[in-house]
Specification:
The protein is α+β, with helices and mostly antiparallel strands. The protein has ten helices and ten strands. The strands form two sheets. Strands 5, 6, 7, 8, 9 and 10 form a six-stranded antiparallel β-sheet that branches. Strands 1-4-2-3 form a four-stranded antiparallel β-sheet, with helices on one face. A hairpin with a 2-residue loop joins strand 9 and strand 10. Helix 1 packs across helix 2 and helix 5 runs antiparallel to helix 6.
Length: about 270
């Protein structure tokens, strides 16, 4: 209930909102739109950028227009389209990734190498969204690039103990290790940082974000932009910032300072 949320925020008397929400309403521009309406400045990206980052179909169109490499993919909004797509497909050892268009945290994401599992994965993805993506799985090294104050942080490598970095690998303790910073040749790390920053800017993100990337044949392919990345002391953005001697408190204060800058701009209007 947007009016109720707006009323609660107004009654709280806050001068600036630090957004640490994930998923629908938190990352898709919902709370940002309310805060804009009641003129309360907030951390991170605005409404338009949040919506773009949350929608994998539309964000990929933006990346492609800006010559940012992405895995080959197809979007669908009903099962009949999927049936037509896979009708004559032979996998021959290849893997497809099926995911809802507008979900985070790897919710509803499946990796499949046969038609039977593909249709199960499609059903699962449609549980979470009316629009899904089926993309080619790129066998490569998964990394993530944090952005802070429009600068790329050191690259973090993601090393899952199972074959695919899915929901279980992401959230079950001990299932994934991380290299901070990633052990990469300097030119490859720089290339990943440049592509990450371009992806951040192409969507119009502000102050901070985190970009998930697959390195295949030393080419960084963007998987998605997280406009509100995890912000616990053990999350990946804080880990990357720590390499530059930016501790968790300072990181949060920098993000908050950016929001206060927006407040100053609003106060002067």
């Amino acid at each position: 209930n947007k009016p109720e949320v707006a009323s609660l925020i107004k009654d709280s008397g806050i001068s600036v909102a630090f957004i640490a929400l994930h998923g629908s309403f938190g990352e898709d521009g919902g709370i940002q739109e309310i805060l804009d309406t009641i003129k309360v400045p907030y951390t991170g990206s605005g409404v338009a950028a949040s919506r773009l980052a949350m929608d994998k179909v539309v964000s990929r169109e933006v990346f492609e227009k800006n010559s940012i490499p992405v895995p080959s993919s197809h979007a669908f909004d009903n099962k009949r389209q999927v049936e037509s797509f896979v009708k004559d497909r032979t996998f021959n050892g290849s893997v497809l990734v099926v995911k809802p268009s507008a979900q985070g945290s790897s919710v509803g994401v499946s990796f499949v190498d046969n038609q039977k599992d593909l249709f199960k994965a499609v059903d699962e993805a449609f549980r979470y969204d009316g629009k899904i993506i089926i993309e080619d799985y790129l066998q490569g090294r998964e990394v993530t690039v944090g952005i802070l104050e429009e600068e790329a942080l050191p690259v973090v490598a993601i090393l899952p103990k199972k074959k695919f970095f899915d929901f279980q690998a992401k959230y079950e303790k001990g299932m994934t290790e991380y290299e901070v910073p990633a052990k990469l040749p300097q030119d490859i790390a720089k290339r990943a940082q440049e592509v990450g920053l371009r992806a951040h800017r192409s969507l119009g993100c502000r102050c901070f974000s985190r970009i998930d990337i697959i390195l295949k044949d030393n080419i960084p392919y963007v998987l998605e932009v997280n406009s509100i990345p995890g912000l616990t002391a053990t999350s990946l953005l804080p880990k990357a910032a720590k390499v530059l001697n930016i501790d968790f408190l300072e990181l949060c204060l920098r993000i908050l300072k950016d929001a206060y800058g927006k407040k100053k701009d609003k106060d002067n209007i």
